Give the backbone structure.
Amino acid sequence: MPKYDVRSEFVDIHTGNRILPGGDPFEPRDSEQYDRLVAARCIAAEPAVLVVNDPTTMSRKELEDAAIDVVRSELASASDDDLRTMIQRFLDKASDGDDDIPLSKMKVDDLKALAFKEEIDLGDATKKDDIIAAIELAREVKDA
């Protein structure tokens, strides 16, 4: 859900926090809360305009928060088909990226996921070196 400018003071029923106008935009938890707050004129009906400070001077936390706000504002206006396309593009890019990372640099859980994706039976392999050996062997057999 996007964030909305606060027009008048209210208490968030979910957190108990007092929300004041002029502060950070408020993000309703659900459409029911949004409808109540708009009807009571506590928040604006239209999403807040996203203002991002100069990224070159922002801390890591500020950069992450700003990136999340940017994505949320884009998601709010995206159609269902646009969202499906974005998700598929992400999945395609993530699967393409597996080949670029050396197996030795991957974590055990990522190696197991890769083996599952490539339909490689790891047998009793649980240690990183054993999993890597199983993946490499399966790939050699497949390429032969």
